DNA sequence: TCGCTTATTGAGCATTTGATCAATCTTATT
DNA sequence: AATAAGATTGATCAAATGCTCAATAAGCGA
């Protein structure tokens, strides 16, 4: 968001005026810049380009991160942090609320969280390069969100169809694919994915005889 | 498949025996190797590593491709070529066959075509790096497969729901996501995706009152 | 078997790139 | 205003990397 104060004192502050920041602050600034940078160009982006974008020397980066890999690790942490709200498992299994409402609320919040340029692209890049954090995230998602969701669908099901984990992944994948089209493939997409999501959820529930619409 | 003849005459042919191939053949061998190589490590893979894997000098690559980018273009062509069978549009709109059968036949063939390591990873890599070929492919897919499919669903629909293009993309995305989990994220997946696909298609048809199951 | 064409090699060039470190300059403190 | 601490820089290194080219030798025809 804020790459630099940019204007402080004089209206036109000659750029590249050496600016001294508290280490913690500078570190965070570098991480934020690195997230945006690597999201855009991939993890093979050059440290010199990142430094230039930050308005800082390349050597400065190595004062805060011993190696480029260490910086990338920090980027991972920053991006993966808090991507799964801890209260979702509870809210998804709160049977005092209709299942459809729970599902729509979850995917409404989740999609605004993940349908973002930085997340989508860094998640995909790290997945491609085999980052362990990626599989950990997906396992976690499966364990604390999708598996309980399967239980809820089973519980609410009125038709003979018994849902499977693959069915849940299919629902999830169909929704996530919107974000992939938008930020990875950069293909024309609806500005507001919520109607597509709602319809997907309703189709899914209908198949198991759950129609609260 | 065949990196080298490997055994010809003597049982143990000392490797790195200089082997002279017809240019066309060598070129194809390089392309095939490059597809596998770049699929695995991404397009920032080094030409020296690729050459080593081919059992050939790095400089040889530049006798067949002026630049690395040109080699990558050849990889694109090789991978994207014939990924969409030209008879699918016709078969998908052949109303003498039940829609469900057409859909299942299409996704059965299509999934075996695209749920492959090389395709999935190169398609995703090229998408991330903004390759034009990627968007072209998706536009083509939308135009010649998914759009006609929308027409077929509309025609067969028995419920009040009117399908939209986004609904079709959702069906498609949910299915493709299986391949993404398998080859990009390397997450546990069903060996045979056909049951998941069948169930997804059936849920979709059911939502529009099309149940021929 | 000899000779010729040309596929292939190996050495090497110019940049790029991650990483280092002593010198410099900003800023808080006195 | 003077001082000290340490954040930041600029020059630089070594390795990696895309690419070139003269030299080499594999395989075909005579």
From TrEMBL, chains A, B:
One of its GO terms (molecular function) is transcription cis-regulatory region binding. This is AcrR family transcriptional regulator. Keywords: DNA-binding. It comes from the Bacteria. Residues 46-65 bind DNA. Residues 1-23 are annotated as: Disordered. Residues 24-83 form the HTH tetR-type domain. Residues 12-23 have a biased composition (Basic and acidic residues). It comes from Roseibium marinum.
């Amino acid at each position: 968001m804020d790459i630099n104060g940019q204007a402080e004192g004089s209206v036109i502050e000659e750029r590249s005026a050496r600016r001294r920041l508290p280490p913690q602050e500078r570190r965070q600034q570098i991480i934020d810049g690195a997230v945006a940078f690597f999201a855009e160009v991939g993890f093979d982006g050059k440290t010199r380009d990142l430094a230039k974008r930050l308005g800082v020397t390349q050597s400065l980066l190595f004062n805060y991160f011993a190696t480029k890999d260490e910086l990338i690790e920090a980027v991972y942490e920053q991006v993966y942090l808090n991507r799964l709200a801890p209260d979702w498992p509870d809210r998804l299994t709160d049977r005092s609320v209709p299942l459809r409402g729970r599902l729509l609320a979850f995917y409404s919040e989740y999609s605004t969280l993940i349908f973002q340029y930085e997340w989508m692209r860094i998640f995909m890049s790290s997945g491609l390069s085999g980052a362990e954090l990626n599989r950990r995230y997906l396992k976690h998602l499966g364990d604390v969100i999708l598996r309980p969701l399967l239980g809820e669908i089973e519980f609410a099901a009125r038709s003979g169809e018994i849902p499977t984990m693959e069915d849940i992944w299919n629902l999830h994948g169909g929704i996530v694919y919107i974000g992939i089209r938008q930020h990875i493939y950069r293909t024309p997409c609806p500005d507001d994915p919520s109607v597509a999501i709602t319809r997907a959820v309703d189709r899914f529930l209908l198949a198991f005889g759950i129609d609260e619409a």
